[in-house]
Design goal:
With about 60 residues, the protein is mostly helical. About 60% of the residues lie in helices and about 0% in strands. About 5% of the residues are buried.
Length: about 60
């Protein structure tokens, strides 16, 4: 499966979200190619993104009750 954004209009927001998550876990992410990151660094960014998405979904569910 290709690494692509399913909703093209969300690409900019997802890039900003990724940069914010990287900053929160202390990884210096730059625009463009980041192939020099270790697997641990890349994983910590992805993990932070998932954590924030779950937290957002939980907050939305809590608010809808």
């Amino acid at each position: 499966m290709a690494n692509r954004t399913l909703v093209p209009e969300a690409k900019g927001a997802m890039e900003q979200f990724k940069m914010e998550s990287a900053s929160e876990v202390g990884v210096n992410l730059k625009n463009g190619y980041n192939g020099d990151l270790t697997a641990r660094q890349a994983g910590s960014i992805g993990g932070q993104m998932v954590k924030k998405m779950i937290q957002n979904a939980e907050n939305q569910l809590k608010g809808s009750k």
